[in-house]
Amino acid sequence: MSGNYIYATSLLNNLEIIDVSNTNAPSDVGHAPSILMVSAVTSANGYIYAASELGNHTLYTFSPSGSSLTLLGQTTASTASTGYNILVSGTKAYVSGGSVGLEIVDVSNPYSQVLSSSFTDSGVFRPYNSVAVTGNSMSACGYPEGTIDGFNTIFDVSNPSRPTFAANPNAGGSFVLAKNGLAYVLNGNSNSIFNVSTPSSPTLVKLFANTAIPGIRMSLAGNMLYVVGDTGGASQPYLAAIDVSTPSSPVIRGTKTFTEFSSGQAYAIAVNGTKALVGITASENEVITLDISNIATPVEKGAVTNLPYYPKAIQFSQDGNYGYVLMPGNPSTLYVLNVSQLTNPTIITNITIDSVGGTHLQLQGNTLYVVT
Question: 5-119 has which fold?
Answer without folding.
Answer: Lipocalin (2.40.128)
